[in-house]
Amino acid sequence: MFRIDTYIGHAEAFHFVRKDLAETLPLFEHNHDFYELMLVDQGQVHHWINGVEELLGRGHLVFLRPSDTHALQGVPGTGARILNVMFRQETSTHLVERYHEELKGRFFWQNGSLPTALRLHGPQLERAVNSLQMLQTSHRSLARIENFLLSVITHVLDAGDITDDRAPAWLLAACRAARDPRVFRQGANGFLAEAGRSHEHVCRQARRYLGLSPTQYVNRIRVQHAAMLLAGTDKPLADLAAYCGFENLSYFHRLFRHQYGTTPHHYRRRHSKTGTV
């Protein structure tokens, strides 16, 4: 077992490393007494994880738990490189206790046999790389790692694109369809119709692979779309909420504040391109 105290001092809370992976087969698989966020920054990686072999490419982000057993090998000729941050179990415990409703069953805290693995692209991948690289020169404090993790989970990752690569094709298709206003205005009913499976089955698989119910998933997308409209148009708030499928304005306010930590009015004032408040 690899131990966090091998990498950091008693007063430190995390360790960051940029690592070029060897192309030879690993000698053994290992587990550890810490959590680990791993991003493939370059090339391709053979990943042996809990008895399964996976091929990871640039942009794959894996949320490894202490219970996971794994090993890595760079695919020959691809120049495989990862960015990796390790942090103590106490940090995880504190975060999930404080932000239980937001984190329960998601990311590091999902209970599947395999850890959550997401594939990032474009600006989302750039944000993740930049956030990780900032840890290289920062003080290894508890506040810094908690701020980083919360930032990755709530801002770097686009809530509408948080899907596990291992999810069934029909669920991934429903997630893509849910980006369409024609679908998300219908709420969970639109998502369920696109999934084409029973309500119970869709809810079960959504919880497993998205960490959210269909209603929670679609509401995140609707609120994201509302934020985009707030920043880019002068549409009245009530009309904007209705356009996104929210008939109850107070419910929209509550969801928006939960997702963005501020009111729609203040969000528009900070981000508006038109200057309208």
Question: What can you tell me about this protein's structure?
Answer:
The protein is α+β, with helices and mostly antiparallel strands. It is built from twelve helices and eight strands. The strands form two sheets. Strands 1-7-2-5-8 form a five-stranded antiparallel sheet. Strand 3 and strand 4 form a beta hairpin. Helix 7 crosses helix 9, helix 9 packs across helix 11 and helix 9 crosses helix 12. The longest helix has 19 residues. The radius of gyration is 20 Å and the shape is globular.
What would the CATH topology of the largest domain be? Jelly Rolls
Tally of separate helices: 12
- Principal-axes geometry comes out as globular
Low-confidence stretches: none
Q: What structural class results from the helix and strand content? A: alpha+beta
Q: How many β-strand stretches?
A: 8
Short recap of the structure:
The chain is α+β, with helices and mostly antiparallel strands and 277 residues long. The chain has 2 domains: 4-157, Jelly Rolls (Sandwich), CATH 2.60.120; 177-271, Arc Repressor Mutant, subunit A.
Task: Give the secondary structure arrangement, pairings included.
Elements: E1 14-20, E2 34-42, E3 45-49, E4 52-56, E5 60-64, E6 70-74, E7 81-88, H1 89-98, H2 100-103, E8 117-119, H3 122-134, H4 142-156, H5 169-177, H6 181-184, H7 188-195, H8 199-210, H9 214-232, H10 237-243, H11 249-260, H12 264-271
Antiparallel strand pairs: 1-7, 2-5, 2-7, 3-4, 3-6, 5-8
